[in-house]
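Data availability (excerpt). All sequences and predicted token strings are deposited with the supplementary files. A representative entry, Lipoprotein, is shown inline so that the format can be inspected without opening the archive.
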Amino acid sequence: MKKYSILLTAAALTVLAGCSTSVAVRDFEQNPIPQTSTITNSEADVEKGILKACIQLGWKCTPMSEGKIKGVLDIRTHQLTVDIAYDKTAYSINYKDSINLNYNGKKIHRQYVNWVSNLIRHIDAEMI
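Structure token line:
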């Protein structure tokens, strides 16, 4: 009976761990700009592609300086702010700030990774 109880407790803890609502905050560094053999993107092309991808997904993106864009995503009561640094060969998306995403210095709401990954897919699609 004791073995059964321990096994049941371990299974319950495994299920509860899978229900976590937070993930480690990570930056998405040095994503290569997709290039084709016939098209080479300039920095202006990359900026335009990033801004277009942001608009398609509902991000409010503002060029801050050459090679840097501030992105803000508002969803219901949540807000995510990222810095997007880029050149003509690669771009990085780094966490900057958030509201109502349970950020504690190390972890954040699990949707953070999904929102940023979706933005990365759309930026890559714009660059092709």
